[in-house]
Amino acid sequence: MNTEKDKLSLQVAHMYYQLEISQQKIADELNISRPTVSRLLKHAKDKGYVQIKVADPFSDVTKLSSLLKEKYDLRDVRVVYVPDTSYQVIGDYIGQAAADYLGEIIVDGDIVGISWGTTMHKIAQRLKPKQVKGVEVVQLKGGISYSNVNTHADEILHLFARAFQTVGRPLPLPVIFDNPEVKRMVEQDRHIQRIITLGRQANVAVFTVGTVRDDALVFRLGYLNDTEKKRLKQRAVGDICSRYYDQSGNIADKTLDSRTIGIDLEELRRKDKAVLVAGGTHKTAAIDAALRGKNANILITDHETADRLVNLQ
């Protein structure tokens, strides 16, 4: 490169693209016409001095969806581009995506099993009414808490049921009992047994994952003592429907699991549509283990978490 035109086109390109000076101002400063500035910019691109790359986040999410579907052998994946990294905003975006997805897939006669928690609440708030017949909505785990922390269990059930023109079936029990014997006795009640059986029959399950951090919802509900929390932090990476699992997606603490009421992981693995809705990079390990254990076959997540999952060894 030694021509005056090449040198001038580079100077103009630096001023326009790097210093963000307008074409008219460049023309004034260099004492040339504005059309000449435009021609010099085109010359710089034609010569390869300027290379413009368009970062299309929507193209990226399509690629990430495909990679995740292949990596974890999933039926479907929806990756959502989220313009903010805050957990609140991520929840809003994936909640909307999940609500839209459920509006697409729920049909007459479906039995929809649901969990509870912050992400589930965001989904429920965004569901649009759909004219379907014979749909059932049932809680997959106990929804009663004696803590001041709100699980939104009742409202989530109500909103799901309203969206799909039905009456919700609650599981009116604490999710974790103090004693496994008491839990087993309660399960024998014919009314409770009917709800648990309906949850097992559900062909669509919608749930999220929890972590084993101190701020995890179940940790704050008063079900677990400090010793149990410490043990879970050592053995588990996350929970689905309060079933705590290890890095392979298998039950991490059988003693605690024997006190937990509601659907178990083996039953989730048999669902036609097991929809995991979870986002935030702090949940990467929990999501990865859940998918490795085949505890879900459909994933809805945000693009940054999807990228972490794709690159996780």
From TrEMBL:
Keywords: DNA-binding, Transcription, Transcription regulation. One of its GO terms (biological process) is regulation of DNA-templated transcription. Residues 15-52 form the HTH marR-type domain. GO terms for molecular function: carbohydrate binding; DNA binding. It comes from the Bacteria. Residues 57-311 form the Sugar-binding domain. InterPro entries: HTH_MarR-typ (IPR000835), NagB/RpiA_transferase-like (IPR037171), SorC_transcr_regulators (IPR051054), Sugar-bd_dom_put (IPR007324), WH_DNA-bd_sf (IPR036390). Belongs to the SorC transcriptional regulatory family. This is RNA polymerase subunit sigma-70. It comes from Vagococcus acidifermentans. The lineage of its organism: Bacteria, Bacillati, Bacillota, Bacilli, Lactobacillales.
